[in-house]
Amino acid sequence: MMVATFLVSGALLIAFAVGLRRIGYGWASILVGVVGVGTVTTGLFAADPGLGYPPGAPGGVPTAMSPRSAVHYTAGLVASFANVASAILIARQFGRDPRSARWARGVGLTAALIFILYVATVIAGSDGPSLEAVAGLIQRVWILVGFGWLALLALRSLERVPA
Fold it and tell me: Containing domain of residue 19, as a range?
């Protein structure tokens, strides 16, 4: 079920990137496409069991990482940084229009929050017992913010659909 979610979400992000390109988002649209490809890749290459995920897996961080898991985490890293970079570029684009100043500030703050939450997820997931208990929660918030702003951008982009 989770693999299907990653694959469908990634495919939808790639399609969204094509739409963003058509309405003039340039490099930001390419970066959203990278987020989509990264999402598909994380779905195709599962992480090693650990931190109690999936249910029944041992607690704690695995002592060794398989190549499959390394691809999963590398794709997540690339997708996260592409998400941050696309948010920065889109915030700059919104900042050029005085009517979109609030959007520009909001997306800029979101870029910072995505970055902070990603780093917090990595630290919490590798810190040992003191933070491992909250690593999954931080990760869920990071995912919600990272994909949530893209959903809001999609809704806003409906206003710019070419006739």
Answer: 2-160
